[in-house]
Amino acid sequence: MDFINLILTPFRYLMSWLLWLFHEGFSLIGLDPNSGWTWTLSIIFVTIGVRAALIPLFARQIRAQRAMQALQPELRKLQAKYKGKKDQVSQQAMLAEQRALFKSHNTGMFSSCLPLLVQMPFFFSLYTVLSTTSKASGSNEGIAALSAAHVRSFDESKIFGAKLSDTFVGTLGSGNPNMAVIVVAIVMIIAMVASQFFTQRQLMTKNMTKEALEGPFMRQQKMMMYILPLVFGIGGINFPIGLLIYWTASNLWTLGQQMWVIKYNPTPGSLAEKELNIRRAAKGLPPVGKTKAQAEAEAAEAEEKAQAQQQQRQQPQRKNRRKK
């Protein structure tokens, strides 16, 4: 546990400093420094700052996902090659060939999980900051970059009558449950889970090729679509309201970012690419990845083939002459 705390310490200082920075900024422009909405805005802008810094990683994730989809036919050939071979030598050989295949395409089986894994230190460090505010406030102590006054201000701040430092489990176990905390926590947990589920579903239905939808990559995506929201939904009952705001805001950022990518830079061969090409055709633009000259040449060639086929169908058949 000490080793984990040692790793999280710089992240804890970074997240608490960003929280302090945005809180001070909003206070300077006239917002009430002790209002729960000022702290909520600060949490949301911390989320935006962290996610904006992770944009290069998101771009790498997109490239890795497309590489994974491109190698689906080769993966199926590999599985067919070792089908029915359950001995240890065959299994090791298949894994070695699979690793070599991933390496040649510069991707991996869990490449799509990378942004989520990178976010974990930021998430857990903010969790330790927000979940200890009540204790630190009672002993008049600061937390990382937050002073004792900031900790008290956060601990006492409310939205819709619920403290940002309260949790669903905490209020139920207090002996005097706060209905405002229960309602706000449930709403935030539902929003967090729904946004995460819809993000993954959108990826599967819009931005995957037919080969990827039929391959083993699809099983991984389906597993993530159901398991991750379930894990965060169950864990959410222990999260402070402030942390639920952070994670929901992060999910909404991911959803918006993915919607932009799917609309303007879809995976080749996906439904989203077909829809983009339809929109481009309506505007008189060539399909994605082709110049106007290439599109016109292909259209002319297709028209010539269609005309040739039509002429061939219309050509009269010579009647067989009767033999005398």
Automatic annotation (TrEMBL):
<dbReference type="GO" id="GO:0051205">
    <property type="term" value="P:protein insertion into membrane"/>
</dbReference>
<comment type="similarity">
    <text>Belongs to the OXA1/ALB3/YidC family. Type 1 subfamily.</text>
</comment>
<feature type="transmembrane region" description="Helical">
    <location>
        <begin position="109"/>
        <end position="130"/>
    </location>
</feature>
<keyword id="KW-1133">Transmembrane helix</keyword>
<feature type="region of interest" description="Disordered">
    <location>
        <begin position="287"/>
        <end position="324"/>
    </location>
</feature>
<keyword id="KW-0812">Transmembrane</keyword>
<dbReference type="GO" id="GO:0005886">
    <property type="term" value="C:plasma membrane"/>
</dbReference>
<feature type="transmembrane region" description="Helical">
    <location>
        <begin position="179"/>
        <end position="198"/>
    </location>
</feature>
<dbReference type="InterPro" id="IPR028055">
    <property type="entry name" value="YidC/Oxa/ALB_C"/>
</dbReference>
<comment type="function">
    <text>Required for the insertion and/or proper folding and/or complex formation of integral membrane proteins into the membrane. Involved in integration of membrane proteins that insert both dependently and independently of the Sec translocase complex, as well as at least some lipoproteins. Aids folding of multispanning membrane proteins.</text>
</comment>
<feature type="transmembrane region" description="Helical">
    <location>
        <begin position="226"/>
        <end position="249"/>
    </location>
</feature>
<dbReference type="Pfam" id="PF02096">
    <property type="entry name" value="60KD_IMP"/>
</dbReference>
<dbReference type="GO" id="GO:0032977">
    <property type="term" value="F:membrane insertase activity"/>
</dbReference>
<keyword id="KW-0472">Membrane</keyword>
<keyword id="KW-0653">Protein transport</keyword>
<feature type="transmembrane region" description="Helical">
    <location>
        <begin position="37"/>
        <end position="59"/>
    </location>
</feature>
<dbReference type="InterPro" id="IPR047196">
    <property type="entry name" value="YidC_ALB_C"/>
</dbReference>
<feature type="domain" description="Membrane insertase YidC/Oxa/ALB C-terminal">
    <location>
        <begin position="39"/>
        <end position="262"/>
    </location>
</feature>
<dbReference type="InterPro" id="IPR001708">
    <property type="entry name" value="YidC/ALB3/OXA1/COX18"/>
</dbReference>
<dbReference type="GO" id="GO:0015031">
    <property type="term" value="P:protein transport"/>
</dbReference>
<keyword id="KW-0143">Chaperone</keyword>
<protein>
    <recommendedName>
        <fullName>Membrane protein insertase YidC</fullName>
    </recommendedName>
</protein>
<comment type="subunit">
    <text>Interacts with the Sec translocase complex via SecD. Specifically interacts with transmembrane segments of nascent integral membrane proteins during membrane integration.</text>
</comment>
<keyword id="KW-1003">Cell membrane</keyword>
<keyword id="KW-0813">Transport</keyword>
